[in-house]
Amino acid sequence: AHRLSTIKNADHIFVLEDGKNRPFWKPYNVEIISIITKSYLNDDNTALDYQMRKCKVDYINPAKNYIGKWNNTKKVKFILKALKQCKTEYALILDGADVCIMSDLSDIVERFKTYDKDIIFNATIRRFPQVEIDHIPNRELLGKYCYFNAGCCIGKRDSLIKFYTKCQKLIKTDRTHNP
User: Fold this and answer.
1) Among 32, 54, 135, 138, which lies 20 to 30 A Cα-Cα from 2?
2) Rounded-to-integer distance, Cα 27 and Cα 115, Å
3) Would you tell me the crossing angle of helices 74-85 and 157-172 to the nearest 10 degrees?
4) DSSP 3-state assignment of 158?
5) Could you give phi then psi for residue 117, rounded to 5 degrees?
């Protein structure tokens, strides 16, 4: 059984249960990174890890042996560690607990390039945590999906390393927190 306690909506559970059984193909120039701690892996309770094993797709998970108290700022350190292990030009960073791959990734790099950006993050309709982390004037002009969500990200590896290094510095200087 998959522990999906953070997901309240039955539709999300259905999507994860359906998605974890979907096959997919990963292009050679993209490495998948996910931060899944040992307790989640031991319980066999993440849809993404199940799907990756079922499809026989390797991914980088530097938190696989981590046991201890968790807060989301630790994720940045693990992502940086994974990016430094990454040998491909691009990295796809996915949350481990509530993400699965719903379609083939064979053209993900071509789709990414159409945005002409070095990094693209997921967006959502609700702010989480429920505190203002960033101030964006006229946010409503961005449309329905106007809040940053780090649960899914694709980018050029070198640009991601620069970005997450800056994030790590913010955490170390205590200029940010995650309640």
Assistant:
1) 32
2) 19
3) 150
4) helix
5) -130, 160
Cα–Cα distance measured from residue 80 to residue 177, given in angstroms and rounded to the nearest whole number: 18
Tell me how far CA of residue 26 lies from CA of 56, 99, 108, 150, in angstroms: 11, 16, 9, 21
8 Å CB contact between 77 and 62: no
CA distance 79 to 95: 11
Please write the tens of the pLDDT for every residue from 49-60.
888 988 899 999
Quick check: helix, strand or coil at residue 109?
A: helix
pTM for the whole thing?
A: 0.82
DSSP 3-state of 121? strand
CB neighbour list of residue 88: distance below 8 Å, 6 or more residues apart: 28, 29, 30, 31, 157
pLDDT in tens, 64-105: 999 888 888 889 999 999 999 999 999 999 988 778 888 889
Which amino acid, residue 172? K
Residue 102 — φ and ψ, nearest 5°? -95, -15
C-alpha 146/C-alpha 114 separation (Å) is: 20
Could you tell me the two tokens for 137? 């004037």
Quote the tokens at residue 73.
């700022």
